[in-house]
Each structure stands twice: as structure tokens, then as C-alpha cells.
Amino acid sequence: MKKPLAVAATALSALALALQAPSPAAATAASPTAYGPGSDPILFVHGWSSSGSVWNTMAGRFRADGWPSTHLRQWSYDTGQSNATTAQQVAAEVDRLLAATGASRVDVITHSMGGLSSRHYAKNLGGAAKIDAWVSLGGPNHGTDTANACFQTSCTEMRIGSRFLTDLNSGNETPGSPRYATWWSPCDSVINPDSSVSLSGAVNTRTACLSHSGLLEDATVYGQVRDMADG
Questions:
Q1: Beta bridge partners of 93
Q2: How far is CA 123 from the centre of its chain?
């Protein structure tokens, strides 16, 4: 009789474990990790002296997770011009992306200086109503001392205490309905001080020891950005 009892006990234990484990559907619902009906198109905004190609790795990961290429806009612009001028171009790019996809809002994912023009757009050009999630990877949101070595208009605006940043950060740093999030690295030698990245009212995340450009390539950062954007 001992053997049948042992078998029954084993079966009951397996059943208990099965009942405790979430179903695949429940796990998917609890942790959004792939493109779905509620996912927004994404506008990527690169930083100073760069181009839309810096997003190749991250955009490729979004495609692998189901985002159509038509919903991933790796846009390039003149990085020497004022961030206020770039903000007007961000507005036009957002409208083009919305028209092309039929969506009502976009997610804006930025690297470095790209955060400044997109924030200006959200705050001063009505962009907050068209942005669902806004992401800053290593953004000089409160300035960086490395901008002191550059004399283009955009660089002077990145300097700590510049008029552009003073105006941008006055009042509410995260205005409107978008979900704001920043990622900063303790090993980012381009953004000094590290505390410049974080915004009041945003979800601010410290990464592992990553370089400024490493924020664009890191798989962990990608997963966090994807889940935040798709939340």
C-alpha cells in the first residue's frame, strides 16, 4: 500500500505547484513585453553630433518584440541649432508619425541632448497632449560641464545655468499627462554631474556602470525602456 500512497502524494504535490504557477496568459498580462493593440509608435530623438543610426540596436530589439518598422522613426536633425528650433521639428515629426500610423499618441525615446528639444516640445508647443511615454537616456536635463568646451548654440544651451535650461526647468519639470522616465549611469563621463539627468515627477533609474553611448546598447536598459513605454 505504501507505493500507491507515495504516487498519490507526488501527484498532489505536482497539482499544487501547477495551481500556484501563473498561466502563460496571466504572465503575459502582468508583464507587458511585446507589441500589442495598446502600443504606441515611437519617435527616437538622438543627441548632439549624432544621427538616427545610433538607435539601430534598440530599434532592432523593438522590431524583434513585434513593433512594425512603420512605427519606429529614427529621425536625424541638425544638432548645432537651438533646441527650440529642433523642438519645432520634433512637433512636425510627431504629427507625421501619428498621421502615418493612425495612432493618437506617440512614445518619445531620447538620448543625451535629444531630451531637451523633446521636453521643450512637450512643455511649450503642445506636445504633452500627443506623448504617452517620454524617455531620457543620459540626458543633460539640468546641464553638463562638458558642454563648456563646445560653442554651437545647442551646446551653450546644455551648459549648467543656461537661460534655455532655466526656462525649461522652471515650474513643473514633467508637465501634462505623459509618463516621464529617465535612466542615468554612474559611469557616464559626458553628463556631469550625474544628478543632471533626473527630473522631478519622473521615474528615475540608475543603471549599471555604462558609458554614455552604452545606454543605447544595454539589453537591461532596453527591457526596462520597452516595458515602461508599453506600460
A1: none
A2: 17
Contacts 24+ apart (CB under 8 A), 83-87: 83/113, 83/116, 83/117, 83/120, 83/154, 83/157, 83/164, 84/117, 84/120, 84/164, 86/117, 86/154, 87/117, 87/118, 87/120, 87/121, 87/124, 87/125, 87/127
Instruction: Extract the C-alpha cell encoding 194.
Output: 550625474
Count of other CB atoms within 10 angstroms of residue 209: 9
Q: What is the DSSP string of 8-60?
A: HHHHHHHHHHHHHSPPHHHHHHHS--S--TTPPPEEEE--TT--GGGGHHHHH
Which pairs from 50-57 meet CB under 8 Å and 24+ separation? Answer: 50/79, 50/111, 50/112, 51/76, 52/76, 54/111, 54/213, 54/216, 55/109, 55/111, 55/216, 57/216, 57/217, 57/222
pLDDT in tens, 48-97: 999 999 999 999 999 999 999 999 999 999 999 999 999 999 999 999 99
Q: Are 60 and 30 in contact (CB under 8 A)?
A: no
Instruction: State whether residue 175 is helix, strand or coil.
Output: coil
